[in-house]
Design brief:
mainly alpha; three-stranded antiparallel sheet; globular; HNH_nuc
Amino acid sequence: MQAADREIARQTALRARAVAEFAASRPASADRPPGAPGAMAAERWAGRAGVLRPVSEWAAQELAVALALSEPAAEALLERSLTLVHRLPAVLAALEAGVLHPGHLWPLLEHLAPVADDALRAALEGELLAWVAGRAVSTPAQLGAKARRLVLARDARAAADRLVRAVRRRGIEVRPDRVAGMSVVTALLSTPEARALLAALGAYADALPTDPADGRSRGQRMADCLLDLVLRPGESGRAPVQVTLTVVAPVGALLGGDAACEIDGQVVPAEVVRALLAALAGIPVAVAEPDAGAAAPDATGTDLHSEPDTDRHTDTETDAETDAETEPHTGGRVDRGATAHLAAQLGWQAREQQELERWWAECERRVLTGEHEPGPDPVPGEELLRWLTEHGPPPKSGEDLGEGPAPDLDAPPSAAPPSDPGEGWWARADRAVDDASAALLAAQQAIGHARRLVATADHADTTDETTRAHGPAGRAGVARDALTALHAATDEHRDALAALLQRTAGGGLADRPRLALTDALTGALLALTDLPALRRADRAGTGLHRPPATDGYRPAAALDRYVRARDRRCRFPGCRHRVPPGGELDHTRPWPDGETSAANLAGFCTRHHRGKHQAPGWHHDLAPDGTLTVTTPTGLTATTTPPPY
């Protein structure tokens, strides 16, 4: 089976290369150009994936016939194949070698391929492939989570842009199910909203009275609760339920950095967690106060004052008129150095425009006076001079302008006023020159305006990134550990963080926030504490460590909390289910032969907990550091470690 699977992967890679080779033989240059009658609509062309734009729009139809696919499926195959060949060549090679299987492609195409920077994408590609090669089992879901975390850590700005665009697509869709008479309703929500919705429906379903005659599953009861809550609100009279979301956030993320966070085990950007905590706890955990003591030079050598990351620009679009006429701002203050640099840029553009206007005036003068020699550099309008050179100089004064053959410029532009039937061809040509000069000048003015907008946007973006990188948020984001991040924070940041940590039940949080002491290199959980315990350990001088073993069968509260925080997900190889809030902590060596300690406890989902005790021929071995080795009845082994922080 493994050999067959490797062959399927190899053939999938060969098909992708063949599809890309076919696409190269069908260039878009053979299609009608944009704007021509019968050409692809501009909206549809703009909506095509970037890798498809060099390919003829009819290639998908030909591929659909060749492979007996629908045209949308053929176009999707074209896009996937070209993306693998041109943007993820190492992934394609790993697929061809059998290191990956086709299921691994989806998370890589979804999360890795959109990275715009070629060097960064190649580096992430190599890191992910090394991660897969170093594991006995790496499912597509695990690879997707790893890819999300890496992209968020290394390409945070682009990830934030994608998040903004995705939030704008929030909505509800319905589609027919594969079974006639059934439909699927899909809600695109932010991760906190989705997790809270799921938890609330589960709580409502669990609150229903138990009836032995009720054959509905929990999922069916959740669906019925959803319908009742939406279609018949207020009819049940039941009290609202409360839900709990488990949020994991590094100190740097709470201080304005870009470190990836988790909500109920789902990887999310730091901005999502900061917004959620601000909404639930009523505390803005990233305070927008300037750090007057920090300054950093930008690319032009001017000093830019730093600011924390509380209102970063994430939209890629800018207001054209505003950007062209206003000065860049940083944290509500006008940056005089950046303004001077921008003014110098705009002054240069103005001088360029003046040169253009002087050149055109000279061009018109040479046309009218008969000076036909073109200028030293080919510029727009020299074609007109060459045409006049070929057809002779302007007629002398007093010559009949109504005689002689009319050149190609005989027909004036449609926007020009009707010509006098009695006027000569030179008068019409002269008016055509005026019209052309006005159109060219307007075009050059538009180009100059666009250049100014691009320069303004580029400089503002560089200023924003440089300012943030050297401010408290940037320094906290790149800090190697929590102590360094706290040292980089402002007093306002630290006060807000302390206020958040002191919140308990009733203050928007269901439980006191826990502080996880982790290994800075491996991300392994070393200790779990909170502010009162931290103060007690400081006074006693005992330091922080794992909770001690429990004498009885059930772990004490501190040990139970520690093991769940360490494992978070089912430890069975490849499983991504969360460890349930209650139960499912298993003694690797049965109690009382094995003690109730962190070195002998592992978290499982319900199914794999049952399988550990009931599936014949399986063996589980847990190392003191939490590494679990599972051996199958056929002798295959797979090792899992607790997910790093």
